[in-house]
Design a protein that fits this description.
It contains one helix and ten strands. The chain is mainly beta and 128 residues long. An eight-stranded antiparallel beta sheet has the order 1-10-9-8-7-6-5-4, with no helix packed on it. It is globular.
């Protein structure tokens, strides 16, 4: 009996771990992310509203992202939130922006704004 309970508990832990929404820097780094559309109601839709990321992004490493629209590197970090994950961008001019980040698969991601940036919504595809 004890073995079957432990096995059941182990299976639950494994399943719960597999359902994690945690996004890692490794999922972002490499290639270029190009804006394709907006993102509303959980799916790509409409025109993108994502200045200054309209031309695309390239995540260079665990803390640096190149923003094509402004032609320079920004610092970024990922943080867990109650609803999923946030990505925080720190512009060298001192501005700090954060967005909800959703990765649908290895080649698609969405950034969604909140607060002052609530209308911000952008859907990207990985360009290889």
């Amino acid at each position: 009996m004890k073995i079957s309970r432990r096995l059941l508990l182990l299976m639950i832990v494994i399943i719960m771990g597999g359902c994690s929404n945690v996004i890692t820097e490794d999922q972002l780094i490499g290639d270029r992310w190009v804006t394709k559309s907006g993102y509303k109601d959980g799916e790509p839709s409409g025109d993108p509203v994502c200045p200054p990321f309209d031309k695309g992004l390239e995540f260079k490493d665990e803390e640096t992202v190149y923003v094509e629209d402004v032609g320079r590197d920004f610092k970024y970090s990922l943080t867990e939130a109650s609803y999923g994950m946030d990505i925080n961008f720190f512009n060298p001019n001192g501005e700090w922006d954060f967005f909800e980040i959703i990765i649908e698969n290895e080649d698609n991601l969405a950034l969604i704004g909140s607060g002052d940036s609530e209308s911000f919504n952008c859907y990207f595809e990985r360009e290889k």
